[in-house]
Design goal:
This protein is an alpha/beta fold and about 190 residues long. It has a single domain, classed as 3-Layer(aba) Sandwich (Rossmann fold), CATH 3.40.50.300. It has 5 helices and 7 strands, in the order ββαββαβαβαβα. Strands 1-3-4-2-5-6-7 form a 7-stranded mixed beta sheet, sandwiched between helices. It is globular, with a radius of gyration of 16 Å. The termini are close together. Bound molecules: guanosine-5'-diphosphate (GDP). The site of guanosine-5'-diphosphate (GDP) has 18 residues, from helix 1. Guanosine-5'-diphosphate binds near residues 32, 33, 36, 145 and 175. One of its GO terms (molecular function) is metal ion binding. Belongs to the TRAFAC class TrmE-Era-EngA-EngB-Septin-like GTPase superfamily. EngB GTPase family. Keywords: Cell cycle, Cell division, GTP-binding, Magnesium, Metal-binding, Nucleotide-binding, Septation.
């Protein structure tokens, strides 16, 4: 897809702030620092539209990016920060549930993982959480450039096995550094839009 227009429309903290123009939405989830912003920026050819790393203590928001006036990428707050308090974790959970459970314009969720490492317990929980809401999930296994070609297949297999990927869901290797996987990601996304 050729992206000609990309803009942040709102950083929402509650439902009443979500856009109401009924455009389809693709959400992005992932551990803090996994490479979520780099993924978005690479896909839409922007250096810095999606801001990197929401650190603990910062307001956690759902960021709605309108793309080509046709759909939204919805960047949900990163998870898995050890330092986050129980109260903050609960707030995050409530916000996620409010969005994921009832948003009927939400078409699919991209779960970003780090292909170098085995998915963490938080990644597994996130995948289960998304499947609980019966959402289609596409796992984007990023930082592909960091893995030698001879080892890539094994890393992919480990990701699929550890997350217990359901047969309808896809795992796509990706690199924000080289752009590998970008066309494939757009291809899959377009099938949901
Ligand atoms: P976020 O917190 O999930 O939004 O993570 P960022 O997009 O800020 O990325 C975290 C760090 O990983 C940054 O230093 C990025 O440059 C780096 N990074 C992200 N994607 C890739 C990738 O595909 N390859 C490599 N080598 N580094 C990456």
């Amino acid at each position: 897809m050729k992206v000609t227009n990309a803009e942040i429309v709102i950083s929402a903290v509650s439902k009443k702030q979500y856009p109401n123009d009924r455009l389809p939405e693709i959400a992005l989830a992932g551990r803090s620092n996994v490479g979520k912003s780099s993924f978005i920026n690479k896909l839409i050819n922007r250096k810095n539209l999606a801001r990197t790393s929401s650190k603990p203590g910062k307001t956690q928001t759902l960021n709605f990016y309108k793309i080509n006036n046709a759909f939204y990428f919805v960047d949900v707050p990163g998870y898995g920060y050890a330092k986050v308090s129980k109260k903050e974790r609960e707030k995050w959970g409530g916000m996620m549930e409010e969005y994921l459970q009832y948003r009927d314009t939400l078409k699919a969720v991209l779960l970003i993982t780090d292909l170098r490492h085995e998915p963490t317990r938080d990644d597994v929980q996130m995948y289960e959480f998304l499947k609980y809401f019966e959402l289609p999930v596409i796992v984007i296994a990023t930082k592909l450039d960091k893995i030698p070609k001879s080892k890539r297949a094994n890393h992919l297999k480990r990701t699929i096995q550890t997350l217990h990927i359901e047969s309808n869901d896809l795992v796509l290797p990706f690199s924000a550094e080289t752009g590998e996987g970008k066309e494939e990601a757009w291809g899959v996304l377009q099938s949901f839009l």
